[in-house]
């Protein structure tokens, strides 16, 4: 369709696969972006970024956490073979950019062993340490100090042979595996985890690299907790979503069995898989097994009606995230092998045809990956999105956001 081709023309990107990052080529289906000291608002090529990811190998003992440095990322615009060249561009010049060995993306890694597949992983800086929390399929949540690994990568000292590293802290009190996990953006070291048995726990940091996890879970959901998100500005408030089709907002200062303050019971027609809390506006975006994307205004949350609903994806939504600075833009991924970018500020033109299948708020569609699982914006490289799938990582940047 013409609309998709037009949006594809606005893509600047580089692609990396995670093939070979561990011995069995296991996919990394969860990752996070590590904030670095290379500066903000980086736009000039080549680009460098640091990520952390976890593998999902079939054998529990074959899994690793991978701290990675992606660098020498250059612009690559993939043109259709029938598309005319620019006035000042020859065919050989166009081909040479993609074949130039000095412009090939590079990947340095530091690996350490992880027992069980990594369901989800999140990282945070606390004082002078870079920490990561990983949800294992074995039902354990581990916290790792990745500061040394990050420093080695910064010095160009990658090491792909997995090493043994002891976790700073481990918690086995969930008694089931889970996926929901989030570090607090307002209280250093405070962690939130939710499991497949509907329980949510809050972790409070203690001296000497320890955490206190309240054994009394936050309970109101009636099925698996799929995602959790701290409020970006209220230290005690968090949100959760569940297989029970609900989205709930909690106040962690209250007793766990009385802490659910707001809820929408039938937020989606089936499982609510993911949520993201807007840093600039009182909005939460959610994605469900029904393929729907919904935006919720927390000032009207109790009426149970979303302020925006988008149906474009033809399979379950697997990831959503608001743009780090633009309060109207968010990205989403689905099991239909698509990554989409949306802008709530765009309205349909007066007099435009109602027969157009693409919502006007849909800015861009990125394709080419198989079974996309997770995406994140890079807060220090404007407009840049990283996504991971069974087929590897993609890094792309659109001109429009």
Overview of this protein structure:
It is a single chain. This protein has 401 residues and is mostly beta strands. Helices cover 6% and strands 44% of the residues. A 5-stranded mixed β-sheet has the order 2-3-4-5-9, covered by helices on one side. A 4-stranded antiparallel β-sheet has the order 1-29-28-27, with no helix packed on it. The longest helix is centred in the N-terminal third of the chain and has 9 residues.
Shape: globular
Mean pLDDT, to the nearest integer, reads 88
Q: How are the strands ordered across the major sheet?
A: 2-3-4-5-9
How many angstroms separate the termini?
22 Å
What is the strand content? 35-45%
Major sheet summary line = 5 strands, mixed
What's the short version?
The protein has 401 residues and is mainly beta.
Q: What's the layout of helices and strands?
A:
Elements: H1 2-8, E1 11-16, E2 28-34, E3 47-55, E4 63-73, H2 91-99, E5 106-114, E6 118-126, E7 129-136, E8 141-145, H3 147-154, E9 159-163, E10 169-171, E11 180-183, E12 191-194, E13 200-206, E14 210-213, E15 225-230, E16 237-242, E17 247-251, E18 260-264, E19 272-277, E20 283-288, E21 292-297, E22 308-311, E23 317-322, E24 329-334, E25 338-343, E26 362-367, E27 372-377, E28 384-389, E29 392-398
What keywords describe this structure?
401 residues; disordered N terminus; single chain; five-stranded mixed beta sheet
